[in-house]
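dumping this here before i forget
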Amino acid sequence: MQFGLKNSPPQSATHSLVAVVGISSLLLALAWLKFNPQFASNTIGLAVFLMIVPFVSMASFELVWQKVHLRESTGLNFAQHEFSIQRVLTKYVGLLGTIGFLAFLYWLFPEYKGNFYDHFYSLAKVAIPIWLIIALPYFFWIDSKMVDPHDGYWQAGLLFSGRLKKIDRQKLLQHTLGWLIKGYFFPLMFTYAVNNLGEFLRTDYQLVSFKAIYDFAYFFLFFVDVILASMGYFISVRLLDNHIRSSEPTMSGWLVALVCYEPFWSMINQNYLRYHNDITWGAWLFDYPLWYTIWGSLILSCLVVYVWATVMFGTRFSNLTHRGIITNGPYRWTKHPAYIFKNLSWWLIAVPFLADKPWDVNLRACLLLLGLNLIYFARAKTEERHLSKDPTYQAYAHWISEYGLLANIKRLFKAPAQSH
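structure:
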């Protein structure tokens, strides 16, 4: 019987040690901030600091040790040295036009008119001018190394300069989708990160009971998750091979992803999928300390796997995009570990079948939670459809079907019959 680790999956886009370096540097930075409260006043700046620290540590490790800049998937050839001034300026026009387009959308949609996104706007006022200064010399340098320099920025530059006949519509579409993804998710994740950071710095955590440990760990795991997610949306460059190779091209893929996030989730949750009953796992087991500890530990274990999956992306995390195939960490055991364990944690937290209500009320709660599970199942399937265009993902999916956790469990149960 073959079991587990006899064969290895395709090489992951991010090495496990890179992820270890990233999470270690982030945790050290958080510990330093916690013990130096004199720096706690500027949470926006500190949130950027917490994104930059793991990014720099992981990027340095990848460039020096893994030499990711030499990968064929970067689309770079360092033997080249020639660039086109006209092409670079066209790309810069494309960048300016893209930023202007996103600014127009923020101005247009009422969602972005309230004060929820104030932290993001404060960052944008400082970061965008710096970014535009750095972008021009970077464009000159990277243009001289690109195998195909007519990228999305070039296509956008053609659009905004009126040279419509030369546009490659597919490249322009992918460029637009990639920036819409950044423009939607980064403000949301960064806002969560700043708000959570403020709570982290303000709160004096007294971990004197399992309940206190659980409450802190539950908050802290999601805090780490949004910091790393924000970092992934904030920086993507070819030099690190963490650029967007392709964006989800279908409306169905976008739909099932966006309904899981604000402002859409509030509407869906309140009106269609509000599965919560009056009782939660804590109220159910609070008078039974041993079972309370066991059940709470199971929930935290699920969330650890969920965040572990984010950590394994390194600098490459992003919804609705392909930025390299991850095959290590929890992805070595199953596809979509984040979705699986996040959804499992919701069942453990809500225990929708246990409320002191009529059976039909509890059944309805279970069916509504199953409805949410189905949304994540649809997300998994649309992501597989997108990523399956990459031969590496095809090989990974085949490897999981042969050597993943579920395959090993099936093989384990079949083994006695075969040996008999």
